[in-house]
Design brief:
The complex is a heterodimer of chains A (about 110) and B (about 120). Chain A has no helices and twelve strands. In chain A, strand 5 and strand 6 form a beta hairpin. Chain B has one domain: Immunoglobulins (Immunoglobulin-like). In chain B, about 35% of the residues are buried. In chain B, the strands form two sheets. In chain B, strands 2, 4, 5, 8, 9 and 10 form a six-stranded mixed beta sheet that branches. Chain B is mostly beta strands and about 120 residues long. The chains are: A mainly beta (about 110), B mainly beta (about 120). At the A-B interface, strand 6 and strand 11 of A face strand 4, strand 5 and strand 9 of B.
Chain lengths: ~110, ~120
Amino acid sequence: AQSVTQLDSHVSVSEGTPVLLRCNYSSSYSPSLFWYVQHPNKGLQLLLKYTSAATLVKGINGFEAEFKKSETSFHLTKPSAHMSDAAEYFCVSPGTGNQFYFGTGTSLTVIP
Amino acid sequence: GAGVSQSPSNKVTEKGKDVELRCDPISGHTALYWYRQRLGQGLEFLIYFQGNSAPDKSGLPSDRFSAERTGESVSTLTIQRTQQEDSAVYLCASSLSGTGYSYEQYFGPGTRLTVT
């Protein structure tokens, strides 16, 4: 079975500083992994996805994530936070059958 | 083009009443998912439809929950005899296919259900 663990429930950064949202996965095979963002009162939007093509994945809005098999990690980063980045972020992996497993989410606060 | 739409956006109901939530997926998307998101928590898988195949109901929490989908179009999620613990945001997502893990899910804005 495959699952994901988001290591931080809340992250707070100052505007213009780097963002790091951590996700670890557990799997016995090379997984597919996704990051989604959920802004307040909005639906979830795909930020980026990893499907074994490249370990460094670039997404929308300047976000990127690196798949590290040795560390079983898929952390989400952005060099410089913007106020509009404040949202809930979910790390997601396909599971058994037709399910997708969502992490518990990381709430990002950006301080002006 | 149009995204996934859900209705109503908000629903307040009394305990014990039945509610019906609607999802209109993106045209051409064969896979459709329903999730529940309780306050401050991640998404909980409820049910999955893929084309005309039998749905995967393994995530439904009780027999008070049911869902239907007409072909590859509209889906309705029905909760009978609602309980206060059913209060949550119910999210619908669709994708081109559920069998390829690289397929992105497109989410609707959700229905916020409050059971009083």
